[in-house]
Amino acid sequence: MNPLFEKIAQFVKNNCQADDYTLNISLGDSHETRFAQNGITQHIAGPNLSINLEVAFGQKTGSCRVNQADEETLKYLIQTAQDIARYNRPDPEYMPSVGAQELPKVDNSDPETRELEPEKMVEIVSESIARAKAWDATVSGMTEKHLWEVGLFTKNGFAGSDTSTNFGHSMTLKKGSVETKVSYSAKDFGGFSLEEELDRLGSQADSLADLHDFDPEKIPVILRPSAWEELLWFMAWMMNRRQSDEGFTPYTGKLGEAFFGPKFSLRSTLKEARLSALPWDMEGIASKEITWVENGVLKNLPTNRHWAKEKNIEPLSVYNFFIPGDDVSEEEMMAMVPRGLIINRFWYIRTVDAKAGEFTGMTRDGVLYFEDGKVRHAVNNLRFNEIPHDATRRILALGKQELTSSIGLMPSLMIDGFNFVDKTSF
Amino acid sequence: MKYLDLAMNAAESLGAEYADIRVQKTTDEVIFLQNLSLKNTSNSVLYGYGIRFFKDGAWGFAHSNVFSDEAVLETVKRAAEIAELSAKMNRPKQLRLAPERSYIAKYETPVLKDPACIPLKEKIELMLEVNRTMLSFEGIRRAMFYLVMHRDEKLFGSTLGSRLELNTQWITPVMTATAVHDGDSQSRSFNDGGRAAGWEWIESLNLIEKSKQVAEEALIKVKAEPLGPEQRRTLILDPNHLGLTMHESVGHPTELDRVLGWEADYAGISFATPEKLKNYRYGSEIVNFMGDNTLCEGLATAGFDDDGVPGQKWFIIKDGILNEYGSTRDTALEIGLESSRGCNRATYYYDQPINRIPNLYLLPGKEELTPAELIADTEDGVYIQGQGSFSIDQHRVNFQFGGDFFWEIKNGKLHRPLKKVLYKSNNPEFWNSCDAICDERFWRPFGVINCGKGQPSQTARMTHGASTARFRNIRVGGSQ
User: Fold this and answer.
1) Which of B165, B192, B223 is the last residue of a domain?
2) Can you list the residues of chain A whose pLDDT is less than 50?
3) Number of domains into which chain B is organized
4) Alpha-carbon distance B261 to B252, whole Å?
């Protein structure tokens, strides 16, 4: 454990007079090289420290966050949190801090990412720009490296820490009217191949060169993993046990039912080495294998400790997304329907109707039209209004899993009758 | 503060063509109450400094939370090293900074009652009363109140010789009632966004009375009928709603960094490209948008931006024509502007400032016109109050908006309440369809406190404003 964390935890333990406390510490170091139109526009480096203390006197709580670890600031941290709690009103939903727990062993840190030097990151940017210039195009994006250490300590005896790394490189290519993007984001730099990313970028750009006008309609789509992940985030945000029990989400009364399509399953897992997984959640509950949806049946919903106690169930949190795939290739998918669209990504998804679970959003970075089993041409971007859980009932096929981020592993999905309602001019 | 001189002297000795240091302490007091349960009562203080180093056409930005001579000098050195790395890459395409003079100045948000001096108990009692009032309505299942009091204390020094002390603050109360009825759930909120004002603003709002109205309207909304299929209709939009519409469809497209493609990888670019300046009909002749970082109680009003450029007021759209952008020192020269409009802002000390929307508002109509007269003058349409769903493409052309409360208008009267209303439009159709704007008596501000942009992501604040306005022939209909 980081000695700074131990020092802060000891100081709080020695000086906090509250009946209970939870101390969260995170220490990060980031390097971010941002480029646009074939030049570097921003270049950022520095550490970030966050120390958050939540205290309680009886059911009265207060919290304070600071970003410095000197004694004077830590005294301020404790005093402020205690003052707020003393003057606060009792919280009827207050839960005491968690005690010591057996935490799962996770490996969220990659030595190669840790050792990555800024010079190498700029070299990656430089090679990306050189390739774009060779294509007579411009590229914009960001190369980033993050190192994090987090720690959680409670008065009731919880003490845990974890380290993690993340490397990311994104590139948006613009060549004439064609815009398309690829991105890599994972805990390990070792899994990154600039050549592969550039090949994919070039291939996507080539496929989009012939743009045709296309009117919105309900049509089969192949959602590439990055597109589906965008939608999943919003769908998952609604998956909350309490909100559902109280009638605010589409999942009200649906636990145990085949509410999703039979081809759809969703898990959070500690067993997949490519995925990062925090060993505990925000409340200090140890992470474990969780099945949220199994073959279409809604098995569990995220639940905080208070609601878990109310309902006499286990508290559960989402810590990563694992959706099993089926290895059907895009070619095989295209052969399954007369015509359809391939979507690279979505953009600007927002809730339309929380109770219905309906969202709107736009396609971005390339839409391809296929017919008779072959890609025919690119089409303009489209707006959808769609209900994702309902869309899973229309899944025709699942592709091979791909890493979409350090916490997302999922396949492409072929969905029938995806509801496009508008188009844009490009 | 001695560190300003120390850092700037060190930057000059390392060969900076320009450098600045921004020492920033950000304090947030947050209280979140839901169904009488205090979910969050917290105080947050983030304190540190960011140093920008410009050399050979490239930036380096390093930040630290450690205040010592050694740490400051180390941070300057790191910024210089990063700038050098960037500069090697940027040849021959170098960034350039628009000229600016130095300033010695101080700015402070004018407030009558500093929220930090209001006892916590008083704030919580008010919030509890609002919660209780909402929950006293049968059918209201969730009552929420979110209160944020935010303060930024900045010291800015640059190698131009500027030394600025900028102390700003804002406050935002958001309260929401959610009703459940017959298998549906609908919410209604009071949300005027943030305002650069003190506790006196909260006191002036009469939140207890407003909470009754919010609860009543949530119940009306959940029992309302959806609008039928989409068709071309007349829309009347209230100032609160227009705050979001203009933010997305005028504010972002006229940020010069987007126009230049600097946000291509994430936030997107803009259809409003430089060849359209002074000739592109963005809106009808009655549509005038001001950029105004001098606006009283405006969230982007801070005296100076994070380039050390003073707040200004200018036409972004004049008589319906695209007039100018919001710009920064590193974007202005790219399209031949002589100077920046002062739109470079960072969120926290560890953020490198980026081109942001200024306070941006629609000027009121010149003829006397009330919202009631506007409705009376409308035979068939939909009146939308407040904000709901919003989505726009990455060029800022095609968009879809919802709202918070809806009325169908028939024969000049509010005919029946509606729910699940959406409208779809695009630039330039939407602003060209504007045929009436109420007069200045009905102009209201809306302060955005969470405008997301940039990589790494930052959230900026700015104030919008409008009087109720009418738009003809827009596609309006129900959701799925």
Assistant:
1) B223
2) none
3) 2
4) 12
8 Å CB contact between A373 and A334: yes
Q: Are A402 and A329 in contact (CB under 8 A)?
A: no
- Indicate the helix (H) or strand (E) that contains A242: helix A241-245
Query: What is the residue whose two structure tokens read 């790219």?
Result: B334
Residues B139 and B238 in one domain: no
Task: Determine the Cα–Cα distance for residues A248 and A353; give it in Å rounded to an integer.
Answer: 10
Is B82 in the same domain as B172? yes
Using a CB-CB cut-off of 8 Å, the residues of chain B touching A41 are: 59, 95, 262, 330
Q: Are residues B309 and B405 in the same domain?
A: yes
CA–CA gap between residue B334 and residue B358 (Å, rounded): 19
Q: What is the pLDDT, as a whole number, of residue B91?
A: 72
The answer to whether the CB of B58 falls within 8 A of the CB of B79 is: no
Q: Is the pLDDT of residue B153 over 70?
A: yes
The question of ipTM being above 0.85 is answered as: yes
> What is the token pair recorded at A59?
């059911």
My answer on whether B213 and B231 are in the same domain is: no
* pTM of this structure: 0.96
Long-range contact set of residues A212-216: C-beta below 8 Å, sequence gap at least 24: A212/A369, A212/A377, A212/A378, A212/A379, A212/A380, A213/A379, A213/A380, A213/A423, A214/A341, A214/A367, A214/A369, A214/A379, A214/A380, A214/A382, A214/A423, A215/A423, A216/A382, A216/A383, A216/A420, A216/A421, A216/A422, A216/A423
Residues in chain A closer than 8 A to B128 (CB atoms): 89
Peptide bond into A118 cis (omega under 30): no
Residue A351 near chain B (CB below 8 Å): yes
In percent, the amount of chain B with pLDDT more than 90 equals: 96
Query: What are the chain A neighbours of B63 within 8 Å (beta carbons)?
Result: 44-46
B216 and B260 share one domain: no
- Residue ending a domain, among B207, B223, B239, is B223
Cβ-Cβ contacts under 8 Å, B39 against chain A: 91, 93
CB-CB under 8 Å, A426 with B397: yes
Domains of chain A listed by start with CATH number = 3-201 (3.30.2290.10), 210-426 (no CATH)
Nearest to B456 among A32, A174, A181 (CB): A32
Which residue does chain A place closest to B350, by CA atoms?
Answer: A46
Q: At what angle do helices B2-13 and B69-90 cross, to 10 degrees?
A: 40
Cross-chain residue pair A88–B43, CB shorter than 8 Å: no
Which residue from A36, A43, A84 is facing B261, i.e. has the nearest CB?
A36
Contact A44 B178 (CB under 8 A): no
Could you tell me if B87 and B234 lie in one domain? no
Alpha carbon distance A22, A24 (integer Å): 7
CA B42 to chain centre: 24
**Taking the CA atoms of chain B, what radius of gyration do you get in angstroms?**
24
Q: Identify whether residues B56 and B186 lie together within a single domain.
A: yes
Q: Are residues B407 and B335 in the same domain?
A: yes
Q: Which domain holds residue B440?
A: 226-478
> Which burial class, exposed, middle or buried, applies to A14 when counting CB atoms under 10 A from its CB (0-12, 13-18, 19+)?
exposed
Tell me if A183 sits within 8 A of A205, measured CB to CB: no
The CATH number covering residue B187 comes to: 3.30.2290.10
Cβ contacts of B390 on chain A, cutoff 8 Å = 350
Contact A88 B38 (CB under 8 A): yes
In tens, the pLDDT along B85-128 reads: 999 887 777 999 999 999 999 999 999 999 999 999 999 999 99
Q: Which of B273, B142, B249, B367 is nearest to A248 (CA)?
A: B142
pLDDT digits (tens, 9 = 90+) for B132-145: 999 999 999 999 99
- What is the residue-averaged pLDDT of chain B? 97
| Residue B200: CB atoms within 10 Å | 13
Instruction: Take residue B347 and report the two structure tokens written for it.
Output: 């969120």
Asked if B261's CB is within 8 angstroms of A37's CB, the reply is yes
pLDDT score for B480: 59
